[in-house]
Amino acid sequence: MTELRVKCDAPIGGIRLRVDTTMRDTSTSLFGPSGSGKSSLLRLIAGLWTPIGSEVWLDGQDLSHIPAHRRRIGLVATDPALFPHLTAEENIRFGISPKDSESKFETLLRLFELRSLQQARIPTLSGGERKRVAIARALAGEPLLLLLDEVFTGMHRAQRNELILRVREHCGQRGIGILSVTHDPAEAVLLNTETLTIDDGKITAQGPTRNVLSDDLLPI
After folding, report:
1. Is this prediction's pTM over 0.85?
2. Residue boundaries of the structural domains of the chain
3. d(CA 50, CA 47)
4. Residue range 1-72+143-211, CATH number
5. pLDDT tens per residue, range 166-201
């Protein structure tokens, strides 16, 4: 990702999302209180919410009228929307084209340490394991942009940090942009080089993460 432009002025969930911003960094976080519009902004970018007059541009292409499944944008939510009747392997393979399925599948299995869980059904997996499967499935489709909606919340710190570094390295090697929602300054610093703060549906600050987040929030 070289540039993501988003424009919107529409009501949703008790607030009015008013944004007109351009993100040019390869990895950006959305930081703000609950109900501030973070998840709504991700849904707008993904094409799951398309209010009249809104615009989404990715690398110079207008996505505003392109359906969600054709945008090449992967979205992973806090509670991953996996297929419960399928195995972990079947969930991941769902987004892989047949021509390069094996090499890509093996890469994702290795990256997210899922080999021992290939045949496990989703209901039998822990929360952290489900998140790893969900991220692998989102990356299987080779998106141009990966949207993460508080995906790392609730994970043990060491496991979270390791997963963040793996996602960052994989996406960096393949030119996949990352836009992640978080309440955790440490997570924002580890994953993202740029941060947007949002409150009451409006962007209140944008810039390098360590400049935007106040000193009392940043990890030492």
Report:
1. yes
2. 1-72+143-211, 82-142
3. 6
4. 3.40.50.300
5. 999 999 999 999 999 998 888 888 887 899 999 999
